[in-house]
Amino acid sequence: MTTTFLILTVALIILGWGFYRARPLGQLGILAWLQSVALMTPWLLFFGLFAFNIYLNLAGVLVLNLGSIAVYIYLGNRLRALEPNRPSASVISNISKTQADSSSRVSNSTEDPQLSEADRVKVTPAAVPLRPTQPPEVPTISADDLQAIQTIFGIDTFFTTESIPYQDGAIFKGNLRGDIEATHARLTANLHEKVGDRYRLFLVKGADERPVVVTLPSTNDPPITTFPQWILATLLAVITGATCLESAGLLQNFDLFADLHRVGETLPVGIGIILTLVAHELGHRVLARRYGIRLSPPFFIPTLQIGSFGSIVRFESLLPNRNVLFDIAVAGPTAGGLVAFTMVIIGLLLSHQGSLFQVPSEVFQGSILVGTLARVILGDVLQESLVDVHPLVIIGWIGLVITAINLMPAGQLDGGRVVQAIYGRKIAGRTTVATLLVLGLASLVNSLALYWAILILFLQRDLERPALNELSEPDDARAVLGLLVLFLMAAILLPLTPGLAGRLGIGG
What we know:
alpha+beta; about 55% helix
């Protein structure tokens, strides 16, 4: 009961703080705040009624959520109607390969202020720009190319006020005119007509929160996978296959590496884990192929505890907009999660006395989602000390965990890319830091969390490079889907409290 009231209190404090921050922004701020209220209301009602021993059934929860989604979309439409051209993506912090000399600048205005530190942007995955020693000679765009690029702008697209030669590209400040997507498409077409395929055009938000155009040579495009990297990816895939089989053996209380002749016993469970990984990767690649985006091979991360943490996949193409980033990022967890979720459901339905695995009932307290599903399907069996479950339950649960850890909102994980696509780079950077802090605290009681935190810190903490059109926001449907997958991530990884587990009758 105390935990429930604490959750409600924290949620109300967050809403109050959000209203305090939104009120100075006027109607736009209040509408945006009301969107967050709409999404939180079903769960506030659920926990509030729960605190008074009033329980909502599944139908009631679904009705509340559908109603909140409808209100969220309605408020989003009101926001767009009030300010259709509002660019709300975060400022890009990374647009070229190295830092430039701020003194290399030409202005269309009578003033010639120095280029601010925040304007030194580059398109690389680095989240924290480095400050290398200034080289003796800084590459710069040719005068002919700069003059040609300046002619692509117009009063009805992007009215430039300053043009800044920046390394081997240029930054253009000014006023955005017309629809964001149409303007970006028109400017890109004009650029290709003037200079061919030698430059890329990025529409981003500058340090002053105003739209800017950045043009960079195509030589700055993401690199393709090298032959040694392909060898590494292949080696990691083989090792991951071995660790998946080893994990299957450990689940059956034997060490495969010590008893290789028992490999046949590990195949059903091991292949089930691998199937989830394959579905996850196929989800990414089907959407990437649909958008014409090249992906690197998956660099799987093996672990003995659950077989694999998933994989690292790089974009080898520039993304056209944040919608594409969201769709490709969410497709993998959706595909892998659906396969794993189906396994859990079928496994619970097939579970009976004498099933292959016998686990303590307290195990089901380790996940809000799986514990709740088990209680609904298995019923009072969970009140016994030991529960016999079908192997698909274990396989699916491991698949859900792999899916959930990849949905953590950090860096270039799928969850980090989802947050970046919906909320922009600034929020994505903050959630990355918060995720690492949470994992650091969780590592005090779980070594798996420490392992994953170290991997994120060294391999995945940097944000994804900006899209060509970084200003257009994903629509409300994508925003709702993003919040849903992040919620499911939490429901998979967070355990039931002892009090709630007792109320549900989970545990002997």
